[in-house]
């Protein structure tokens, strides 16, 4: 065998020409550009007085379990930790195959539940079922998607002819989202006059939810003895879903207007 890059990996019987490899051949140890091909020359020499020789080029193709397209195919799967919330899809990549993890299209993750972190065990397997696993940590981030809700509160009372500027009542709402900004809006004010509820303007609402007597009007017990105030609350930071309270909004009843 003429000396070359791979000549040391083979031996030849000097008399019979039988060629053998000296050790296990590894396609991964070869230059990928050669596609598993090993080239060297074998020289045959006679024993004449004036020795003559001839040579032949030998090409050996090392078959593969990994580099060729048939055996390089890898599939990915989630074997633990998904709880039915994630899927992985295998796609071809320039350097091999890639596993794309995504939320199952039939599932919607909810930050407000107890499960805010997933530890996925992802397995890669080739056609020979050689496998490797990796752990992928998925953290669920909070998105402002919850509708604010009113908390029930007691009825309040107010004296007639009052000129106080302090709040006479207050709407209170809550939002499950971590980041929110609640603003209260007046829907209507109705006063019970002679036993019937009619629209009036005796009260106003601050964006903070405080209810105040409208300074432009006089609360008169002899005219009306009760008022019902309806409001809604809006979350200015809502990114997804409804940003306001369920309509109709919460009602605050001024059960008594004192003389």
Automatic annotation (TrEMBL):
It is found in: Membrane. InterPro entries: Cadherin-like_dom, Cadherin-like_sf. Its main location: membrane. It comes from the Eukaryota. Keywords: Calcium, Membrane, Transmembrane, Transmembrane helix. This is Cadherin domain-containing protein. Residues 54-150 form the Cadherin domain. PROSITE patterns: CADHERIN_2. SUPFAM superfamilies: Cadherin-like.
């Amino acid at each position: 065998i003429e000396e070359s890059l791979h000549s040391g990996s083979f031996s030849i019987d000097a008399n019979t020409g039988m060629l053998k490899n000296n050790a296990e051949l590894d396609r991964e140890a070869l230059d990928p550009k050669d596609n598993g091909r090993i080239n060297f020359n074998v020289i045959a020499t006679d024993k004449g007085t004036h020795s003559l020789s001839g040579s032949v080029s030998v090409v050996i193709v090392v078959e593969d379990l990994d580099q060729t397209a048939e055996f390089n195919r890898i599939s990915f799967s989630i074997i633990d930790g998904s709880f039915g919330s994630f899927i992985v899809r295998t796609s071809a990549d320039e350097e091999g195959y890639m596993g794309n993890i995504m939320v199952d299209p039939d599932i919607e993750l909810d930050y407000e539940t107890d499960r805010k972190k997933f530890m996925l065990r992802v397995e890669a397997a080739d056609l020979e079922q050689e496998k490797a696993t990796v752990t992928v940590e998925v953290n669920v981030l909070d998105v402002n998607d919850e509708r604010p809700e009113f908390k029930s509160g007691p009825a309040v009372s107010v004296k007639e002819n009052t000129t106080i500027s302090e709040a006479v009542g207050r709407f209170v709402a809550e939002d499950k989202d971590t980041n929110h900004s609640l603003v209260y809006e007046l829907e209507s004010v109705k006063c019970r006059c002679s036993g019937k509820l009619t629209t009036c303007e005796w009260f106003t609402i601050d964006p903070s939810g405080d209810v105040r007597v409208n300074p432009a009007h006089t609360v008169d017990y002899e005219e009306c003895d009760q008022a019902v105030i309806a409001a809604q609350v809006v979350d200015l930071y809502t990114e997804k879903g409804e940003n306001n309270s369920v309509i109709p909004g919460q009602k605050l009843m001024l059960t008594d207007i004192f003389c």
